[in-house]
Design a protein that fits this description.
Length: 341
């Protein structure tokens, strides 16, 4: 049984790989990827292939009642040590107190998995308390922007591949934080790599995912950080002519995140020390602070604050607020001009 105050995806998967199963897993939240990963792993590994016909039951919350779920969970396995009951669309179940009543004395031979996507259970319900006491209550949250690059690096490393920072950023900018789509694209990318060279490079990303290795948000940020006016405008003009390659909606969050962190870096007591700045910003390594060291040399703290306000203004205009007709391309150029002047 997990400590539900500290339950994590990695912790759940670690227990499952060690064949430690809880009586119930209530998987909920706005990120379907982790819910699917846990449920699929249990379906594929808790039973031997020859045991599944009689001991794996998949139900849908819109088609069954809570009483039916509880009754199914109370069944004993056939020619197996356990049975697995998976309830998809669990958010559609009504009168879940009957499942809570089952959890008062759950069968040790049943693994009940309830998948509740795009929302969370009402913590005031008896079921929530019963799950927390008896099994695993897991909330699958949308990944934070700052965790997206580490997710990409870890996903590929666990599959025997390496990837540089630029390639990570290219993938993140091109696909975004939809983890199901992101992992699907990375699986395709892995298939394209030769067996003797599992290295993901910008060239590989350009070929397999279709994002330009020279005109992208990563290169735009680099140009801005280093005050390369020509290159920044070249990229902005490319985006304006090729909206699918990049747009104001993709690079505004990236720029906002950078300048927000840059402003925080100015408050570091040892801001001349790259390692201290990395620790201050909670970055993964001193190397990751390099762009912030450059930024503090090329922009004043006052200018950074003004840029942050300008990004917010451009973001509002891009959504039509106090902007009757300025095109996104013109807004991009307006922002870049302001940053450099």
């Amino acid at each position: 049984m997990a400590d539900n105050k500290n339950v994590t995806f990695d912790g759940i998967m670690r227990d499952l790989r060690a064949h430690k199963y809880a009586p119930i897993y209530y998987l909920m939240g706005d990120e379907p990827y982790y819910i699917d990963q846990i449920a699929n792993f249990i379906e594929e590994n808790a039973l031997k292939p020859e045991e599944r016909d009689f001991n794996l039951t998949v139900m849908y919350g819109s088609d069954v009642s809570a009483a039916q779920v509880a009754d199914t969970a109370r069944r004993y396995p056939m020619m197996s040590d356990r049975q697995v009951v998976v309830v998809k669309e669990a958010q559609n179940l009504r009168n879940t107190d009957q499942i809570a009543a089952y959890l008062a004395k759950p069968l040790a031979s049943t693994v009940l998995v309830m998948c509740h996507k795009n929302g969370t259970i009402d913590k005031r319900k008896k079921l929530a308390a019963a799950v927390e006491k008896t099994g695993v209550l897991f909330e699958s949250k949308k990944i934070r922007d700052r965790d997206l690059l580490p997710f990409i690096e870890k996903f590929l490393r666990e599959r025997g591949a390496t990837i540089d920072m630029k390639s990570q950023q290219l993938i993140a900018d091109s696909i975004g934080a939809d983890l199901s789509r992101l992992t699907g694209e990375m699986e395709k990318l892995l298939l394209s790599l030769p067996a003797d060279n599992k290295q993901v490079t910008p060239e590989v990303v350009e070929q397999q995912i279709g994002v330009s290795k020279d005109f992208n948000s990563f290169e735009l940020r680099d140009a801005i950080v280093n005050r390369n006016v020509f290159k920044a405008n070249q990229i902005i003009n490319y985006f304006d002519s090729n909206p699918k390659a990049g747009s104001i909606y993709s690079f505004l969050p990236m720029l906002f995140n950078y300048f927000q962190n840059l402003l925080i870096a100015f408050y570091c007591p040892q801001r001349a020390n790259q390692e201290a700045v990395a620790q201050w910003l909670e970055l993964r390594s001193p190397w990751a602070a390099k762009d912030y060291m450059t930024g503090m040399r090329n922009f004043s703290a006052t200018k950074v604050m003004q840029i942050i306000y300008k990004i917010r203004e451009i973001d509002a205009k891009s959504k039509g607020i106090e902007n009757p007709n300025t095109a996104p391309g013109e807004l991009m150029k307006e922002l870049i001009f302001f940053i450099f002047h």
